[in-house]
Amino acid sequence: EYEGDRNSEGQRHGFGKARLPNGDTYEGEYECGLRSGHGTYRFKNGALYTGNYLQNEKHGKGVFFYPDGSKYAGDWVHDQKQGYGEYLYANGDTYTGEWANNKRHGQGTYVYKDTGSKYVGCWVNGIQDGPGELIHLNHRFKGRFLSGKPLGQGKFIFDIGCEQHGEYIQ
């Protein structure tokens, strides 16, 4: 069911509202029958996306609200989180940084709400990997990470002014 503008060929073109057979709805811009431009898509399961589309895919800036209460605000490319974005998880944790193929990838900061700790550094395919710093309330670790664990030369720096240098092996 569609209500809105059409082009000379009868395709959805311009602004319109659609109710899909699965119960989802879309309100926004179309181009030659496809969602293109700004729009809001409401999923039957309670999720909602508002932002830019290109040829029926999330593309450009947009915000996705998930049914569990989590939220992603940032860049999209071909329906994937890609570029810079902020993710608020349902448990209150946050990630701010770079994304690729729907995963944390590149430089980013992950904050653990329960402990107040945070990781600042490199990510590869959603995992802490490369140079980084794990910051706790009274100390921090600075070094390299591999698959989410410290590896190689690193140091603990304590708030009381002392440091502990060492090498991590896995």
Q: Can you put this structure into words, describing what you see?
A:
The protein is an all-beta fold. The model has no long low-confidence stretch (mean pLDDT 96). The chain contains no helices and 15 strands. The chain has a 15-stranded antiparallel sheet, with no helix packed on it. It has 2 domains: 1-79, Histone H3 K4-specific methyltransferase SET7/9 N-terminal domain (Single Sheet); 91-170, Single Sheet (Histone H3 K4-specific methyltransferase SET7/9 N-terminal domain).
Descriptive key words:
2 domains, Histone H3 K4-specific methyltransferase SET7/9 N-terminal domain, 170 residues, 69% strand, repeat, 15 strands, elongated, 0% helix, mainly beta
Main sheet characteristics:
15 strands, antiparallel
What is the terminal-to-terminal distance? 58 Å
Which residues form runs of ≥5 with pLDDT under 50? none
Structural class: mainly beta
Q: How many independent structural domains?
A: 2
Q: What is the alpha-carbon Rg in Å?
A: 21 Å
**CATH superfamily assignment of the largest domain?**
Histone H3 K4-specific methyltransferase SET7/9 N-terminal domain
How confident is the prediction overall: mean pLDDT? Answer: 96
The count of β-strands is 15
Strand order in the largest sheet: 1-2-3-4-5-6-7-8-9-10-11-12-13-14-15
Inertia-based shape: elongated
Looking at CATH, which topology of the largest domain would you report? Answer: Histone H3 K4-specific methyltransferase SET7/9 N-terminal domain
Instruction: Determine the strand fraction and express it as a percent band.
Output: over 45%
Helix run count: 0
Assign the CATH architecture of the largest domain: Single Sheet
